[in-house]
Structure prediction request, 257 residues.
Amino acid sequence: MSDETKSIHEFDFKLICEYFSGMERQGPGSSEVTSKALSFIDNLTNESKIADIGCGTGGQTMVLAQHTSGHITGIDLFADFIDIFNVNCRKLNLQDRVEGVVGSMDHLSFQNEELDLIWSEGAIYNIGFERGINEWRKFLKTGGFIAVSEASWFTEKRPDEIDRFWKDAYPEIDIISHKVKQMQQAGYIPMATFVLPENCWMEHFYALQVPAQEKFLKKYAGNKTAEELVKNQRHEAELYYKYKEFYGYVFYIGKKI
Ligand SMILES: C[S@@+](CC[C@H](N)C(=O)[O-])C[C@H]1O[C@@H](n2cnc3c(N)ncnc32)[C@H](O)[C@@H]1O
Prediction:
């Protein structure tokens, strides 16, 4: 495998965490998109219990918290992200009803039928979309919602370069209709799907990385892992600019039946 196509998963996670922890979001998204996805969910009250799985430092969780009144638990594998998450909660005075905990999405400790809403932006790929929506379903009450964003193809066919890149990075990437079918098969009513606009990638994700990359390369001058991480991120951004008609993130919102 060439350096260019090396998966991000092969890099040192500690370094990746540091690289991303300075950014408001660790994946493509925006407050507008989080609010839009939330607009399809109509079962929430003060008593609601919400989980944000793979929450990172909580960019989207804080938006969720400002538009809902129940209790939110953010879960992420990386303690450094959760530390920042909990500092952000205190800054926004949300600590009484929003908390970040370290945990893995494949070993969640919720009770069956405890949750009203499961949220996950740009993170379910870590367990795989199909496995995630099936395994997490038991934690939702009947009538509860799941809202996840997931890399998806926009076309049946695409250029080889981008097809190979994604098949290596995330073989479960698929066209939207297949993902919707998987939701139905898992026992959800597909309530809505929508494509995240380009600004979620360009402005809110890749553009913010440019100054962070300069700083990071200065700090880790001569460190091969750091240089490779930045090179990989730049390559990913170039691919996005080149092939954005063929893929992107899609929000999938389902209701448990
Ligand atoms: C692309 S980031 C998205 C973060 C955040 N939701 C956002 O949109 O900014 C993916 C997140 O999944 C987390 N993650 C990876 N594997 C995980 C696991 N097994 N359990 C929980 N979180 C995990 C990563 O630490 C990272 O914060």
Remarks:
- Confidence is low (pLDDT under 50) at residues 1-7.
